Amino acid sequence: MLRYNTSITMKPKKKIKIYILIPAYNEGPVIASVIQDVQKEGWKNIIIVDDGSTDSTYDEAKKTGVIVLRHSLNRGKGAAVKTGFEAAKKLHAESIVTIDADGQHNPKDIMRLLEVLHKGNDVVLGVRNFDEKHIPRLKVLGNYIGNFFTWMLYGVWVTDSQSGIRAYNRKALNSITIYNDRYEFETEIVREISRNNLIWREIPITVRYTSYDQNKRNKQSLMSAIKTMLRLVMFD
Fold it and tell me: DSSP state, 28?
């Protein structure tokens, strides 16, 4: 089986240090398998940020031998990503890819995002194919609402404003400031791309929704998407 190194050679004798960031909250049943799937693709530099889980997420992640950081209280996905960004910068990461901890993302897409990132882009956004029948229709509607409000607020139209799989280079890591602790941060990233004149691209990715994912209490729903956009309108 083909394996990828955690460094990508861009020029002779030059390698890029890459970290995979996975924010997690109460993902004890699946977090180990998600990490292992990423490791099977050859990625070794993995940061888990346990956002105050009340289940076995932290212990299960620690067993895999990756870097595991922990919030003492649940603060939100945005806060977990902020913590992960700061950790990656201290570890001298030159590129970082975020994926969700529930197993919905395909680790094979990590390399695809990085290949596009390293062709002169600062940020690459993964885009789900919303025509696929297995994607819940409420997710499709919630995402469209998010896209519309993102365009209204920041004048930037993105195809998947709520996607959790994204790649960033060092310039983006140093430029992006996240203020919101919860799901608002997904849209906030788009604002930061525009504010800092970052070069960005979108590429299609694959997702796999399971009964586990759909039954989670903390998953983003249509109502939470609407609340997220209203908070951005009120406080941006």
Answer: T
Model pTM score: 0.85
Residue 132, pLDDT score? 75
pLDDT of residue 10: 47
Distances (CA, A) of 53 to 49, 67, 123, 215, 220: 10, 16, 29, 17, 17
User: Residue 157, SS3?
Assistant: coil
φ, ψ (nearest 5 deg) of residue 170: -65, -40
SS3 assignment, position 38:
helix
Q: Report yes or no: 100 and 165 within 8 Å, Cβ to Cβ.
A: yes
Pick the CATH number of 7-235 from 2.30.30.700, 3.90.550.10, 3.30.310.40, 1.10.357.10: 3.90.550.10
Alpha-carbon gap, residue 21 to 97, rounded angstroms:
6
Which tokens in the block code for residue 35? 């990490």
Dist. CA 5–CA 143, nearest whole Å? 34
pLDDT tens digits along 135-177: 777 778 888 888 888 888 888 999 999 899 999 999 999 999 9
Distance set, CA 225 to CA 52, 68, 231 (Å): 22, 28, 10
Say how far apart CA 95 and CA 93 lie, in whole Å: 6
How far is Cα 37 from Cα 41, in angstroms, rounded to an integer? 7
Assigned token pair, 127: 């885009």
